[in-house]
Amino acid sequence: MQVQASNFPDSASKNNYSKFNFNIFQSLHSWYLPTSRSLAEASEKNILSMGDVDLCYVDCETVEHNEHPSKNDLLTAKMMNVPVDNENFIRTLFIENKNGSTNKNLVITHGFGNGLGFYFKNYKELGNSLDSNIYSIDWLGMGLSSRPDFKINKKHSHEEKVAFAEEFFVESLEKWREGLKIEKMILLGHSFGGYMSSLYALKYPERIEKLVLESPVGVPETPESMRDLVDLGKFPEKRPKEKDSLPKSSQASSVDENIDRVIDRDEETLERLRNVPLQYRLLAKIVYKLWESHLSPQSVLRFFGRFGSKFTNRYVSKFTSFSEEERNALSEYMFHVAAQKGSSEYAIGVILKPLAFARFPLKNRISNLAVPTTFLYGETDWMDYDAGKELSDSLKVPSECHIIPNAGHNMHLDNPEGFNNVLAKIVNIDL
């Protein structure tokens, strides 16, 4: 029996229609969020070129070198994607020691929302001054490393969630080390990277020659005055107005006797929180809810799409010592890194409470570190130097604290020369 073709759906037409719709969607998405893997790689290449780093790519999508016709003093480095399992890899910058005969290996791990490109001001000088090979990595699920699904079971307890997140980073770093057959390393971690590097050193001390914690997050306990706010999202109630009960002479005497008394920091903080205006209290509660739902800053940037670059522009504008070209390159790199698929960035709300206090502070966990440890803080760092100094003094292994002058939390960018000089002393001095 002959069947007329018109009685059957035109599959070719449907496929073309579906393909057309898909292409329209892709075009709209690309317009709204103008990023891609290739654009992110180009921005990485560009920011590193600002630091006179000449890249050759090993087993990556791109194979050409950076081109600097007018420069002949570039630092040569390799960019690799190092597998950590059958599906995932860690983006790795490798700078071989110029003498080629050292057993030392410095491994640099970046902070949250950053990538290995944030050390563009340091690689050249470190490569020329350190008696060490240098590896700089993007944490798995961040930077230009692969972006596996990072699913948090909201039914689990905080303890279970934190353990899951910490194992994700610590074990991926260990697999990376195994893949490159690095026996021992000087492990440097900045901020979030310092937190995870501490836990790695605690679990695998035999693999650590020295630990360098650059303004690590999560060291102190949550101050008593802020626990209701960061744990429950609640502001302290205002004090009821009290009438004066002392005669004026007594009050004056009391003031005179205590004029040089140092105001208790917790009480001062409480008083400030009591007087926060209503609109800011409401905003803080919204932020608290979003944080507890594991929404990341990168999620917000992706939500704003092509306008997300305004956030990165504003962030890098504080690096006033940079040229305009350097600021633009860093902002572009930061935008493309943040705009990639969401992955392990969601760990930030797991391991930290709002205002960057750790759910399980390092102060109570790494007192038994078995490796020499150095803490680095910027002179105007927003991290708690006193907590770091206290932890450093409590360690049973050789430990010290350094303050980098004219620098804040990102001391490797604020004062590259000062940071590089201190790091060179740490790396080059044998134990």
UniProtKB/TrEMBL annotation:
> What biological-process GO terms show up in the record?
lipid homeostasis; phosphatidic acid biosynthetic process
Q: Which residues form a coiled coil?
A: none
Q: Which Pfam families match?
A: Abhydrolase_1 (PF00561)
Q: Which domain of life is it from?
A: Eukaryota
* Residue span, AB hydrolase-1 domain: 106-230
Location of region: Disordered: 237-257
The Gene Ontology terms for molecular function here are:
carboxylic ester hydrolase activity; lysophosphatidic acid acyltransferase activity
Bias category Polar residues: which stretches? 247-256
Question: Where along the chain is composition biased (Basic and acidic residues)?
Answer: 237-246
Family classification? Belongs to the peptidase S33 family. ABHD4/ABHD5 subfamily.
In its UniProt entry, what is this protein called? AB hydrolase-1 domain-containing protein
Q: Which organism is it from?
A: Furculomyces boomerangus
